Description:
Blueprint: E1 3-6, E2 9-12, E3 17-23, E4 33-38, E5 45-50, E6 57-59, E7 67-72, E8 77-82, E9 91-98, E10 110-113, E11 117-122
Parallel strand pairs: 2-11
Antiparallel strand pairs: 1-3, 3-8, 4-5, 4-9, 5-6, 7-8, 9-10, 9-11
Amino acid sequence: VQLQASGGGLVQAGGSLRLSCAASRRTFRNNGMGWFRQAPEKEREFVAAISWSGGGTSYADSVKGRFTISRDNAKNTVYLQMSSLKPEDTAVYYCAASRYGSGSSYSNNYAFWGQGTQVTVSS
């Protein structure tokens, strides 16, 4: 599975962005999906995950209530809607496909990773 993330950019604090992650094949619909991020000089961290059906989602506490993960299996695409953005949300955001049908906060559960898209939030 190849993953292509897009939608990053520069936004002011309080603004919104929607990230997209397109998968290369239809079996994507059997995989849980996740978004992770990595800020400069920090370790990669979990942001959000969604099950293969979209029926189960989970979020890091730092983004809960501000970010929403969703998927469109007909389009082989997963989204991350980000609102009320803060400067501390600045990072490279990566999408990933799980080995399993459920989403997870554990990066080791993910077999495939996209190339990342930069999100910069100015204060």
